[in-house]
Write a structure and sequence with these properties.
One of its GO terms (molecular function) is ATP binding. The protein is α/β, with parallel strands linked by helices. It contains 14 helices and eleven strands. The chain has a three-stranded parallel β-sheet with strand order 1-2-3. The protein has a three-stranded antiparallel β-sheet with strand order 4-6-5.
């Protein structure tokens, strides 16, 4: 949504410059500074390593007299704006726009909250029909389809995903979907509404095996990452998720096709680079949970841990994210007989010693 706002502001020329940064749950000051500086063409900031000096230089750049809009997307907590270097002071015409799942987060950041309401009943019906197809108007299907639509709670992301999952399906499949909503058992996923999980899980379950595996593999990448098809293809092939593939080229063609179908299903987002895709953060949350529980995948995406729990022995793929200098990794990996993929992503230079006693 914020990317659309950015494009609209550029077209309307409301501001002379626009700087955009996705904050996310695992944010750090330096990365926010870097993203804002990049959008402002302030590339010299990368030469400076000290955060306080970077903040001072960024602050000076933002106060150069131009009308600047700073967009901070997906904010989860109070952000020390002064530490980042965002302090317009008396700068006229300069604004900060934040988005968050929680109204309180906006209030904690001293922003004027503007709640984006869910779609009206008619707006939701029109959007649902666009994605589910004209068959929802059939006399037998319509009552069930409208009950399914109610379960989407007026949320566009959910309406699109569920609509595509049930597009042109027969009545028994619609009734089965509604039954899944009725029998839903809440999942304890932090910061994720049960209704959102329930509706997205339905979309996941309607995917064919290869498409589902491709989507779950995307959850191993960092939040807001632009995922290259050239990287995703050999990973899917190596994990055995592509049937009868005898070359990287064939694997890439298959993954390209799967990615396009997932974009059509509104489960993946396109990027400016047509060979890359992104996961919406809410869909990624659901994908991580499903991949951790699904017997055919058994993935784990975790922040750093100092002790490796024995329950991880069955994992096929593990992704660890190192965000801060004092983050820890286990001293050694326990016996992991099923492990096929290990990704340790280092955001900063760390001296890490891992005793790989895996045989």
């Amino acid at each position: 949504m914020m990317e659309q706002v950015t494009r609209a502001m550029v077209e309307q020329k409301e501001f002379e410059e626009i700087a955009f940064a996705v904050v996310s749950a695992t944010w750090d000051v330096k990365s926010i500074q870097g993203r804002l500086a990049s959008d402002l063409g302030f590339f010299d900031l990368a030469k400076e390593d000290e955060i306080s000096v970077r903040a001072s230089r960024l602050r000076h750049r933002l106060k150069n007299g131009k009308k600047i809009l700073v967009i901070l997307d997906d904010v989860w907590c109070k952000i020390p704006l002064e530490d980042v270097g965002i302090d317009f002071g008396d700068s006229r015409g300069c604004k900060i726009l934040m988005t968050s799942r929680e109204k309180k987060v906006c209030e904690d950041n001293k922003c004027l909250p503007f709640v984006i309401e869910v779609l009206s009943k008619e707006e939701a019906r029109v959007l649902f029909k666009q994605h589910a197809g004209n068959r929802i108007e059939d006399e037998g299907i319509n009552p069930v389809a409208m009950d399914v639509l109610k379960e989407c709670g007026g949320l566009p992301l959910i309406i699109r995903a569920v609509g595509e999952a049930l597009r042109d399906r027969e009545l028994p499949e619609w009734e089965d979907a509604l039954q899944q909503f009725t029998n839903f058992t809440p999942q304890n996923i932090v910061n994720l509404d049960d209704q959102v999980y329930m509706t997205l899980e339905l979309s996941f379950n309607k995917l064919k095996p290869e498409a589902k595996s491709c989507l779950l593999l995307c959850s191993l990448f960092p939040e807001d990452a632009e995922i290259s098809i050239d990287l995703l293809s050999p990973l899917a092939m190596a994990m055995g998720f592509l049937c009868s593939m005898d070359s990287i080229k064939n694997a890439r063609d298959r993954v390209f096709s799967l990615v396009n179908s997932l974009k059509t299903s509104c489960l993946l987002l396109g990027c400016e680079d047509g060979d890359k895709v992104k996961l919406h953060d809410v869909i990624r949350d659901v994908a991580i949970y499903i991949a951790s529980e699904d017997v055919d995948h058994r993935f784990m995406v975790k922040p750093p841990i100092s002790v490796w729990p024995a329950k991880y022995e069955a994992r096929r793929a593990i992704s660890l994210r190192i965000e801060k200098l004092d983050d820890e990794l286990p001293g050694k990996l326990v016996y992991l007989p099923s492990l096929e993929g290990l990704d340790i992503n280092l955001w900063y230079f760390l001296r890490v010693a891992l005793d790989m006693n895996n045989s």
